Automatic annotation (TrEMBL):
Its EC number is 7.6.2.9. This is ABC-type quaternary amine transporter. It comes from Rarobacter faecitabidus. Keywords: ATP-binding, Cell membrane, Membrane, Nucleotide-binding, Sulfate transport, Translocase, Transport. The lineage of its organism: Bacteria, Bacillati, Actinomycetota, Actinomycetes, Micrococcales. One of its GO terms (cellular component) is ATP-binding cassette (ABC) transporter complex. Residues 3-233 form the ABC transporter domain.
Length: 327
């Protein structure tokens, strides 16, 4: 089910949460609303769900005006960051809840719950209480409950934010596989750039209540529309006053003859080498004394081949074809 958002605005008192948002969310895709805290992404998600009313504008779901349709009639499944589980109900009863309030036949409910628990790999925990599950299992239960009603649209508000890094990574992979199986139009809010880049088909970058850019992960990472997108979507450093990604900097030893370095090369002295897994981060202080320390990311094999050491003078320049953005 596609979603069309037209000129949507929302204020909370004097605070502008959303300003003239225009956005098309394609049917069957996995779309991330990405941005800093307070940027407006959760407000937009709640407006799509019907949990907030826009001050201006229009929401259409599969071509039908849903702007004034109550949340319970929009055919939307919503998953919150903190699960919102019914603590006194078993896992199976939690998943069945939405079907029961819709007065579905008992046989249909039982079959649907069985299918959903199998889908999220929780069949063996059907009779447990939510408190007896891990955080990752509770989040999978919440997703099963949302999917049980066969929603037109699945909305996730920072679904993995309360989990530790390892579980978050596992659930990101699982969500991507799950989406590829069920193909429901899914929109999720996150402020985690890696999460959006890894999981989403399309990313909507939102800042200060406005859409900065919409595109695929590759589009946004390789061709950012402005400095904000470049700086928000991945690490950056500055070389010659321009923003650039640390792995897009070429480094070469010029100890033998620094004065012979090419005009496009920035000379600097290595102040620190930091190995993190397969990466080596090189911190270089420009000899000009006017620029901040430049951070360069190399692979371990690249660093070994260059024979880099602290105190060494090196030359820095953007790799061929690299996009840089002037300050």
């Amino acid at each position: 089910m596609s979603i069309e958002i037209t000129q949507v605005g929302k204020n909370f008192g004097d605070f502008v949460a959303l300003a003239d948002i225009n956005l098309s969310i394609p049917s069957g895709g996995l779309t991330a609303l990405l941005g800093p805290s307070g940027g407006g992404k959760s407000t937009l998600l709640r407006i799509i769900a019907g949990l907030e009313r826009p001050d201006t504008g229009r929401i259409e779901i599969e071509g039908a005006d849903a702007t004034n349709v109550p949340a319970q009639r929009r055919g939307v499944g919503f998953v919150f960051q903190h699960y919102a589980a019914f603590k006194h109900m078993s896992v199976a009863k939690n998943v069945a809840f939405g079907l029961e309030i819709r007065k579905k036949p008992k046989e249909e409910i039982a079959a649907r719950v069985k299918d959903m628990l199998e889908l999220v790999h929780l069949s063996q925990f059907a009779d447990r209480l939510p408190s007896q599950l891990s955080g990752g299992q509770r989040q999978r239960m919440a997703l099963a409950r949302a999917l049980a009603i066969e929603p037109k649209v699945l909305l996730l508000d920072e679904p993995f934010g309360a989990l530790d890094a390892k579980v978050r990574k596992e659930l990101r992979d699982w969500l991507r596989r799950l989406h590829d199986e069920v193909h429901v139009t899914t929109v999720f809010v996150t402020h985690d750039q890696e999460e959006a880049l890894e999981v989403a088909d399309n990313i909507v970058v939102i800042n200060n209540g406005r859409v900065e850019q919409v595109g695929t992960p590759d589009d946004l990472y390789d061709r950012p529309a402005n400095d904000f997108v470049l700086e928000f979507l991945g690490p950056i450093t500055r070389l010659g006053g321009a923003a650039i990604r640390p792995h897009d900097i070429e480094i070469a030893s010029v100890n033998a003859s620094p004065e012979s370095a090419a005009a496009d090369v920035t000379l600097g002295r290595i102040t620190r080498l930091l190995r993190i897994g397969f990466e080596v981060r090189v911190f270089v202080e420009p000899l000009s004394g006017t620029d901040d320390t430049v951070n360069v990311t190399l692979t371990r094999s690249e660093a070994r081949e260059l024979g880099l050491e602290s105190g060494q003078v090196v030359g820095l320049r953007p790799r061929v074809g690299t996009l840089i953005a002037a300050r």
